[in-house]
Amino acid sequence: xxxxxLLGKPKLKNAVLIEGxxxxxxxxxxxxxYLIEExxxxxxxxxxxxxxxxxxxxxxxxxxxxxxxxxxxxKAKRKGQRDIVFLIGDCQSLSPQGxxxxxxxxxxxxxxxxxxxxFTVGGLATGELEEKREVIGAVTDDKILKKxxxxxxxxxxxxxVGYIVGAxxxxxxxxxxxxxxxxxxxxxxxxxxxxxxxxAAEEVLDVLxxxxxxxxDMTKLEKKVKEMEEFMKKVESLQxxxxxxxxxxxxxPGKKDESLRYIG
Amino acid sequence: xxxxxLLGKPKLKNAVLIEGxxxxxxxxxxxxxYLIEExxxxxxxxxxxxxxxxxxxxxxxxxxxxxxxxxxxxKAKRKGQRDIVFLIGDCQSLSPQGxxxxxxxxxxxxxxxxxxxxFTVGGLATGELEEKREVIGAVTDDKILKKxxxxxxxxxxxxxVGYIVGAxxxxxxxxxxxxxxxxxxxxxxxxxxxxxxxxAAEEVLDVLxxxxxxxxDMTKLEKKVKEMEEFMKKVESLQxxxxxxxxxxxxxPGKKDESLRYIG
Amino acid sequence: xxxxxLLGKPKLKNAVLIEGxxxxxxxxxxxxxYLIEExxxxxxxxxxxxxxxxxxxxxxxxxxxxxxxxxxxxKAKRKGQRDIVFLIGDCQSLSPQGxxxxxxxxxxxxxxxxxxxxFTVGGLATGELEEKREVIGAVTDDKILKKxxxxxxxxxxxxxVGYIVGAxxxxxxxxxxxxxxxxxxxxxxxxxxxxxxxxAAEEVLDVLxxxxxxxxDMTKLEKKVKEMEEFMKKVESLQxxxxxxxxxxxxxPGKKDESLRYIG
Amino acid sequence: xxxxxLLGKPKLKNAVLIEGxxxxxxxxxxxxxYLIEExxxxxxxxxxxxxxxxxxxxxxxxxxxxxxxxxxxxKAKRKGQRDIVFLIGDCQSLSPQGxxxxxxxxxxxxxxxxxxxxFTVGGLATGELEEKREVIGAVTDDKILKKxxxxxxxxxxxxxVGYIVGAxxxxxxxxxxxxxxxxxxxxxxxxxxxxxxxxAAEEVLDVLxxxxxxxxDMTKLEKKVKEMEEFMKKVESLQxxxxxxxxxxxxxPGKKDESLRYIG
Lengths: 264, 264, 264, 264
Known about the structure:
4 copies of one chain form a homotetramer. Chain A is 36% helix and 27% strand. The first copy, chain A, contains 7 helices and 12 strands. Chain A has helices at residues 27-38, 96-113, 142-148, 157-160, 167-177, 198-211, 221-250; strands at 2-6, 15-20, 42-49, 55-59, 63-66, 69-74, 84-89, 115-125, 135-139, 153-154, 163-165, 181-189. A 9-stranded mixed sheet of chain A has the order 1-3-6-7-2-8-12-9-10, sandwiched between helices. In chain A, strand 9 (135-139), helix 3 and strand 10 form a beta-alpha-beta unit. The longest helix of chain A has 30 residues, at 221-250. Mean pLDDT of chain A is 86; it is low at 245-262. The interface between B and C is large, with 38 and 45 residues.
């Protein structure tokens, strides 16, 4: 009941997958969304799952869309660049087993199209922000640390956090189990987990662009984030919504309801 | 473990399915229930599922019924009308995967009996009601908007809401995935989600009746809603009940219970 | 993962199954437990399920037992009596799908050993108790009502409640789906759902004993309930425990924990 | 989706398995962790499961690890000793069915490598600690009680508790269903369930070491616990985290969010 619909079958070589699903500060969502737009990456697959919210989103004010994750690809244009697969979407799974099952499906497809390395992008909610908010890194293996340590990444994440939640962490954990490697990049952001933070996204983008040898016009980010605003608000709503549902369930019904006497 | 029991096999042509399961204001439930009665639609299937509440309802004060969804059909009587399948029932699923799995079963049956288009009916809780409460519409595709835009439907739902929860949205999302089309009609109602609102149901009915070219005597709606009252109260109780169960779980046991010391 | 271990294969004729799992007031548990003891019914099966609590109970202060449901049988001794299967146990399922799946397993076994009719015993928490606390009845079909209406049963349950929760209701709902019949008997008890109420159990026993034409010495009930006390306290603890777990999850950790900064 | 990766296939004779997964006071985790280190036991299997948290842990500050349970073995060095399998890990399952499914997988492997008896180690949160905190025992069968009663174990657990939660209890319950035997040892610890208690771990170790005829230098325990500190803090965070997630879900969003109006 997790289904991938292929729209194309790109043949990529030694490609990197960059994950940017909604999460803390929606940093991955914004960063990867911007890369997709700027690089004019091509969509090649949709992923639907019974582990997502039982909701549909409304696009353009009236058009119904099942929640989904999407795959895009972009082919390297010159030496020093790599083919890229992008994973972006409306949401993550609601339950633990959903996270694991969707994760495995994502990695199956990644392997099939030629992905050899994975970068995930997430956020770290630090409460107050430090003066200099360096991007935090975590890796599957020491050789990845060595490979990327020249970049401005703080590899002491373990001092600040004990674990990484959701797709940003799990995709890499499951990938490592397949004897493959990758890195997680976390932008530092303020407390409340579900407010989009484009500034933190920019900091992660800076690192990613250098690692991947991309030429990206960063000046349009602010404008693009504005354009994405309506959509990002819906993504945030979706996240809040999950909280609300539970909260609602706790409001005690105002009046004693005779028809509710407990039976069993 | 989602089972459909067929009582008949209607052969329909280019039929429309109208969904009216319990939800906000029970608008769909009331509207579709009234259409079934007025058109004397014939039942042809029951759907049971382990994803429903582990409850039974009591009809006629003492008769036990498993929770279920029901399918009815009605054949077009004259030109300009279409064959109709009605989906009505006691409840929706409790969990996300239940919503998805029951939804797929519903659509499988719909396809088998000849349904080509789906209308879902739901409610939009707006807090305060605006003077004129127009029916809100959302569609799977622009061509549906074009087809029905002459009717009194406000297609700016996306401005008011970001998504549609439960069967009213999900059935259409899953239907679109099968390259088929449909429309969601939402009556506007006041805040508390689980009080039946026959006035909002009437507004949606007005639109539906015109679209489907039906002759329905609307004057009996009020009387019929009164007759349905006992049943609707049970449906509401069922919805409140889901909330209550969780609320109850939160009441702290009054006394320290020696036998409850934590172990593990 | 719901497993029935057979210890014997009784061949019964036109037998009745009487369910008495823990529930409101533990009325069914006490009533059926007393019948099993008084009739010296023989155990013939254990049912284990992954849908039960992930706990073990301690019997005799130190002996570990997986949670289970148990089946006993008793053969009619003289004309006017019927063979009986008893269903008793430590707990019910935790989730909706567990209730449905365990329920089907129970009914499969019941059919196999010759059960043709089912009685379930539960409790109705009425808040305050009325002067005369008549046993409440609900049935799968009018013919069952007719069959048992001469007994002191109030068949207006539907006025007091809209549905019956858990095994007491669901077993009958699922049984009816198999075109078979049965009756639910509910003792009225006070508010808090998980305090054992032997008085209410006695009232249901009175009705059951007459229906089944049994000779049971009721004077020992009080003494037996005392003997059962330690076990019933554990069953109650188990029920409270389910509540506690959730309650605990809500206590906010006292200190700010640096290592808990949110990531994702 | 619960997978065991074998790194070796030890052939053991009449071996005992000792379980020490995180739990109350992390007593089992500390005690078994210390035994593994002191005996230089060899790892031979990893267990991963979709029933664990959808998290990854960070080791050495930056290295990503999927949550897992691990199996080690140690071969008896002299007469009077037994081959030992150790079960240790980052976490237990999140849901009931996860507990049951992972438990069965553990026991399957245990049987395959020659385990005949199981000891589980857990904690009992007693609120206040009694002067003398004796280790509490529970067994699958009277013959186990007889076998080990000469050791300093209080076999009146049933007076203090009605059941044992999680792996410490369930592994033994499921093991007994396979007609096999074992014992649970519970260290007494103070109230808050998720603070590591090395003192209680030492008391259980004392008993275990005598039963298994091991020569263990206990003086290093304190030092080792210090070394484990960073890891134990992560395990505690993981446990608190589970609570936090739910707590967070209950914070009401501060402002009324127009885009959150309820629909359905």
